[in-house]
Design a protein that fits this description.
Keywords: FAD, Flavoprotein, Oxidoreductase. This protein is α+β, with helices and mostly antiparallel strands and 475 residues long. It folds into 3 domains: 91 residues, Uridine Diphospho-n-acetylenolpyruvylglucosamine Reductase, domain 2 (2-Layer Sandwich), CATH 3.30.43; 113 residues, Uridine Diphospho-n-acetylenolpyruvylglucosamine Reductase, domain 3; 217 residues, Vanillyl-alcohol Oxidase, Chain A, domain 3 (3-Layer(aba) Sandwich). It has 14 helices and 18 strands. A hairpin with a 4-residue loop joins β5 and β6. The chain is globular and about 65 Å long. The two termini are 32 Å apart.
Length: 475
């Protein structure tokens, strides 16, 4: 569909926009890729058939009907941070619904449930929650991520051990389904659809609005950052062993979460504790965290908003918010999958010896578990309730991802997987662009996949909401 030609698809999309400017764009339009498509991973080129920015749920419904009539697949883009540009369709030819205009917010001060437009970014969400009663909810650390994708795939972050994931806070949604209908879904209305949307949302519809439960903001927050610089990765192995022992403790205080980030100059260890300095010291964690201690220079006492800002700053040290060409691998670990000391040594020695192909790389290990395991394994489509750690690798190529970079990350991944053969799944937010649809859906959703495919058959039998790694309908 081009701006200089007429087609049925262009005609119906133009009709949705009417006289609105900045509403729809096509591949032949100037600055289409830069101003409209704006891919996050520049290593995954993609050209959508069109990008439309709806103003409301009715616009979304009309666009879905237009796509059905004209043979387009549909994907929604909230923040646009998919590692495979899946919000842009993941491959050429999709109709992209950019939810940038859906940023409404309201707070019910009786239930403390917030209603949030699906185009809202996490940083702005935190501001709204803070300004409307000093409230909070669990989510990830990057303020530029949109809630639309985040809260439908998982939404993991430092608060998850204490409060669960972002999708665990969703109590109701407004969603446009494949027939172009505007639906409500919750535990009591369209329950099977609601189940699937919380974990695999991009395969089942376009959510336009979330209703989420919230918590009172924590008071004091302890932020811990410890950097080991200019050492070899081999020197980092014993430090990682100590860190993994800490986060692998089944009785680890739920108010605490941590990351270990291996990177070119050594390693960074972060910790977040939601409580007072006295409570932190009484937890016993300062005596166990590598480099830590009650008098560590890496400890900062702050408040909720200060903590969010600090976490975003640390995240930028490992995964930038900027569009770049990059590659990534990942795995999720149960307690029995944690790495042995021999495997740890082998992995870190490999990181020293291998040709990395770039200086812009990070191997990131996150603590998980805690409250994530409180919800029943089949309560939502999210399948990783039994995991206590995740890892993801991330490397940027300039000007593109080279074979050397891929071989380096795949080498790290192979060493880790050989040492943890039971770790055969991963979080669908840390996607691997090399996997095909059948492999990816099995790795991302595991035991939840059969039910997901049945729900897909009921709600989207013609696979309208589709990308290269989305759930397929049951046959």
């Amino acid at each position: 569909m081009g701006s200089g030609q007429s087609s049925p698809g262009k005609t119906c999309l133009d009709a949705i926009c009417g006289n609105r400017t900045d509403c729809v764009s096509y591949p032949s339009d100037p600055l289409y890729q830069i101003s409209w498509v704006k891919p996050y991973n520049l290593d995954v080129p993609v050209t959508p058939a069109a990008v439309l920015r709806p103003d409301n749920a009715q616009d979304v419904a009309d666009a879905v009907k237009c796509a059905t009539e004209n043979g387009f697949k549909v994907q929604a883009k909230s923040g646009g941070h998919s590692y495979g540009n899946l919000g842009l369709g993941g491959e050429d030819g999709a109709l992209v619904l950019d939810l940038v205009n859906l940023k409404s917010f309201s707070m019910n001060k009786e239930t403390w449930h917030a209603t949030v437009g699906a185009g809202t970014r996490l940083g702005k969400l935190d501001e709204h929650l803070h300004d409307n009663g000093g409230r909070a909810m669990a989510h990830g650390t990057c303020p530029g991520v949109g809630i639309g994708g985040h809260a439908t795939i998982g939404g993991l972050g430092p608060m998850s051990r204490m409060w669960g994931s972002a999708l665990d806070h969703v109590v109701e949604v407004e969603v446009v389904t494949a027939d172009g209908a505007i639906q409500r879904a919750s535990e009591t209305e369209n329950e099977d659809l609601f189940w699937a949307l919380r974990g695999a949302g991009a395969s089942f519809g376009v959510i336009t609005e979330f209703v989420v439960r919230t918590h009172p903001e924590p008071g004091d927050v302890i932020e811990y950052t410890y950097s080991l610089t200019f050492g070899s990765q081999s020197d980092m192995a014993p430090v990682y062993q100590k860190w993994q022992e800490l986060i692998g403790d089944a009785d680890l205080d739920r108010r605490f979460s941590s990351q270990f980030i291996a990177q070119p100059l050594g390693a960074i260890i972060t910790g977040t504790f939601y409580g007072t300095e006295e409570e932190y010291n009484e937890s016993g964690i300062p005596d166990k965290i590598p480099g830590g201690g009650k008098d560590s220079d890496g400890i900062m006492l702050t408040d909720w908003l200060g903590s969010l800002g600090h976490q975003a700053e640390v995240e930028l040290l490992s995964i930038s918010d900027l569009s770049t060409p990059f590659y990534s691998k990942s795995l999720a670990f149960r307690k029995e999958d944690l790495l042995s000391n021999d495997t740890i040594t082998e992995v870190f020695d490999y990181m020293d010896d291998a040709d990395r192909g770039t200086v812009l790389w990070a191997i990131i290990f996150n603590s998980e578990g805690g409250a994530m395991a409180d919800m029943a394994a089949n309560a939502t489509a999210y399948p990783h309730r039994d995991k206590i750690m995740m890892y993801q690798s991330y490397a940027v190529g300039v000007p593109k991802v080279s074979d050397t970079i891929r071989e380096f990350l795949e080498g790290v991944h192979t060493k880790i997987q050989d040492g943890a053969p039971g770790a055969n799944s991963t979080y669908a937010g840390y996607i691997d662009t090399e996997m095909d649809r059948a492999e990816a859906t099995e790795v991302y959703w595991g035991s939840q996949l059969p039910r997901l495919r049945d729900v897909k058959k009921e709600w989207d039998p013609k696979d309208l909401f589709s990308n290269p790694q989305s759930v397929q309908p049951a046959k």
